[in-house]
């Protein structure tokens, strides 16, 4: 057992009743979590390690609050259970950082404490921390910091491309331009007009897309790239590829659980792999941050804004309404945009709107009356009903999977591992047509949009890529016109995630993110699936294969799972080649 003067570092909250002896057993996570749950304690610390020099110092990482403390280990005596409780003011502790830590450890000699947050590495000598604490009683120690800088040029293709002859559905109001010229210079839209009205730069490549339809790229406001690999990243991960292939050129992952998503975002932005614009809130902010003031909320949010460099935040049940308002005010001060969800509680949803949050998932009650509709419309709060994961009714997945049999879709099977498709599509529940409830909830979202409110489209990552088109179809089944659904998927969604100046419409200056469709989506919203080409950031891809067609001609590397997974039908593997 460690002696009384041993030290450990704790990230988060230590919990009552956790013994040092138990903490050394097989699963630190499991031991701490089980004790915390059984005793109703504050969210527990859940990870620990020892330095490699054989000393008895160690440190422990907390569940989600990320605050880093240095604590003395209590003595372990026979028949006693030593405990540490950060909720007890009498527990000695030195706060090393209030901003938080993603990872931490000891130096090889056990004399320095090291931690990282975002791309910044911090280190401080243990003797300096203790000396300063004895002299000043300092609660937080300023550590030496060093940024781990890796610089790559942002991917910007070079060249001028004119897409000529399609019908452009611009999403600038009701504007539809027949036989249009859409001019792309590098990665931006340079002009959109009827044929012959633009000044075409010399040397521009003209691509004939007559008979097709061009719309802005879709923006998924409620993305979850659940299956991405963590810590060890996977280039060309299928979560990103399948979304891009189905026309989702941007998305906001509103709870990635870890910060790996920001590394994937960098890989995509640097051109190391194709994919949508992979925005994220970073890991959600939960109640275990113990927010008690606006200043404390600002400390938590600065980790996201300054270290993860994101302007979006998922305030994921951070506590009571006073605490939620503290987060909202801190976000306002820091220029961040918070979103949240109401957990099937209408009263909670309504206070979110009143306090300034975007709201995810459907309000669980229908019909909505004019007071609630006007509350959303006049407050300017965004609303993402997310029909694939509804509150208040069964989702659209059973209906859509039985309607379209996506397990037999060769394009989906090209981009998604077969075992994933099988897990998502088997054993679905059948409902009578008359018992479907999602059209009623869709109709309530439409009321908000028609009243001037902000509605965005999100798919929740249930059926990556293809599921986004089902969201549009469900919205139309609730009474939306095809144009209203397309607006929600483009301008409404780009406004929802705070990117309306860059995305969502076909107009000069915006990113060249657009879709080329074979059939008219205004005639039938299901025609959004007739994708011929997907342009993201000025690069044009074949929508069936994601082979790049402009400005380079480059085939997408063959997915690992095409050959590793056994075919479900004879000759399927050969046909997929």
Notes on the protein architecture:
The protein has 577 residues and is an alpha/beta fold. It has 17 helices and 26 strands. Strands 10, 11, 12, 13, 14, 23, 24, 25 and 26 form a 9-stranded mixed β-sheet that branches. Strands 2-3-1-4-5 form a 5-stranded mixed β-sheet. α6 crosses α7, α13 packs across α14 and α14 packs across α15. The longest helix has 15 residues. It starts with 6 loop residues before the first strand and ends with a helix. The N terminus and C terminus are likely disordered.
Characterize this entry briefly.
With 577 residues, the protein is an alpha/beta fold.
Largest sheet features: 9 strands, mixed
Count of separate DSSP helical elements: 17
N-to-C span? 61 Å
The helix content, as a percent range, equals 25-40%
Mean pLDDT over all positions:
85
From the spread of the alpha carbons, the general shape counts as globular
Rg is 26 Å
Derived structural class: alpha/beta
Which residues form runs of ≥5 with pLDDT under 50? 1-8, 10-43, 53-64, 566-577
Q: Per DSSP, what share of the residues sits in E-state strands of 2 or more residues?
A: 15-25%
Strand segment tally? 26
List the helices and strands and how they pair.
Layout: E1 7-11, H1 20-23, H2 28-39, E2 45-49, E3 58-62, E4 68-72, E5 94-97, E6 103-106, E7 112-117, E8 120-125, H3 126-136, E9 144-147, E10 160-169, E11 176-185, E12 188-194, E13 205-208, E14 213-216, E15 218-223, H4 238-245, E16 248-253, H5 260-269, E17 277-280, H6 294-307, E18 312-314, H7 321-334, E19 337-341, H8 346-355, E20 358-360, H9 370-379, E21 382-384, H10 397-404, H11 410-415, H12 418-425, H13 438-450, E22 454-455, H14 466-477, H15 482-496, E23 514-517, E24 531-536, E25 539-542, E26 548-550, H16 561-564, H17 572-576
Parallel strand pairs: 1-3, 10-13, 10-14, 15-16, 16-17, 18-19, 19-20, 20-21, 21-22
Antiparallel strand pairs: 1-4, 2-3, 4-5, 6-7, 7-8, 8-9, 10-11, 11-12, 14-23, 23-24, 24-25, 25-26
Helix pairs in contact: 6-7, 9-13, 13-14, 14-15
């Amino acid at each position: 057992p460690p002696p009384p003067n041993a030290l450990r570092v704790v990230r988060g909250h230590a919990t009552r009743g956790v013994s040092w002896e138990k903490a050394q057993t097989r699963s630190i996570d499991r031991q701490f979590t089980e004790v915390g749950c059984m005793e109703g304690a504050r969210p527990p610390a859940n990870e620990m390690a020892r330095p490699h020099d054989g000393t008895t110092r160690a440190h422990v990482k907390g569940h989600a609050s990320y605050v880093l403390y240095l604590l003395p280990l209590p003595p372990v005596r026979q028949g006693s259970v030593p405990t540490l409780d950060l909720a007890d003011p009498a527990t000695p502790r030195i706060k090393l950082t209030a901003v938080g830590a993603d990872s931490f450890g000891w130096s090889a000699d056990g004399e320095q404490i090291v931690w990282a947050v975002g791309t910044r590495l911090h280190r401080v000598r243990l003797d300096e921390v203790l000396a300063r604490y004895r002299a000043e009683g300092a609660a937080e120690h300023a550590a030496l910091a060093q940024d781990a800088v890796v610089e790559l040029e942002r991917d910007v293709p070079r060249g001028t491309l004119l897409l000529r002859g399609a019908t452009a559905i611009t999403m600038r109001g009701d504007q539809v331009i027949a036989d249009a010229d859409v001019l792309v210079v590098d990665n931006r839209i340079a002009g959109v007009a009827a044929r012959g009205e633009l000044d075409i730069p010399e040397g521009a490549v003209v691509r004939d897309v007559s008979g097709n339809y061009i719309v802005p790229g879709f923006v998924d406001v409620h993305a979850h790239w659940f299956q991405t690999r963590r810590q060890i990243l996977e280039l060309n991960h299928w979560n990103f590829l399948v979304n891009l292939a189905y026309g989702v050129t941007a998305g906001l992952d509103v709870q990635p659980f870890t910060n790996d998503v920001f590394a994937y975002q960098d890989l995509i932005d640097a051109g190391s792999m194709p994919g949508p614009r992979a925005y994220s809130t970073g890991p959600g902010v939960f109640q275990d941050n113990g927010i008690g003031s606006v200043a404390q909320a600002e400390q938590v949010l600065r980790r996201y804004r300054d270290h993860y460099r994101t302007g979006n935040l998922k305030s994921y049940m951070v506590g009571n309404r006073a605490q939620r308002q503290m987060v909202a005010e801190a976000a306002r001060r820091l220029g961040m945009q918070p979103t949240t969800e109401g957990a099937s509680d209408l009263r909670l949803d309504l206070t979110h709107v009143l306090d300034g949050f975007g709201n995810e998932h459907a309000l669980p009650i229908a019909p909505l009356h004019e007071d609630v509709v006007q509350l959303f419309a006049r407050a300017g709060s965004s609303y993402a009903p997310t029909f694939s994961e509804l509150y208040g009714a069964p989702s659209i997945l059973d209906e859509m999977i039985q309607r379209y049999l996506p397990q037999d879709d060769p394009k989906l099977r090209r981009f998604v591992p077969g075992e994933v498709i099988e897990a998502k599509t088997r054993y679905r529940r059948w409902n009578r047509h008359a018992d479907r409830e999602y059209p009623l909830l869709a109709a309530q979202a439409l009321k908000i949009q028609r009243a001037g409110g902000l509605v965005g489209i999100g798919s929740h990552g249930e059926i990556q890529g293809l599921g986004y088109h089902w969201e549009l179809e469900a919205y139309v089944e609730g009474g939306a016109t095809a144009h209203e659904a397309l607006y929600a998927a483009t301008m409404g969604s780009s406004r929802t995630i705070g990117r309306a100046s860059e995305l969502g419409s076909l107009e000069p200056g915006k990113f060249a993110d657009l879709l080329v469709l074979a059939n008219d989506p205004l005639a039938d919203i299901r025609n959004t699936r007739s994708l011929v080409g997907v342009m993201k950031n000025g690069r044009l891809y074949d929508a069936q294969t994601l082979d790049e067609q402009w400005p380079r001609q480059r085939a997408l590397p063959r997915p690992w799972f095409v050959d590793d997974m056994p075919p479900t039908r004879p000759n399927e593997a050969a046909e997929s080649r």
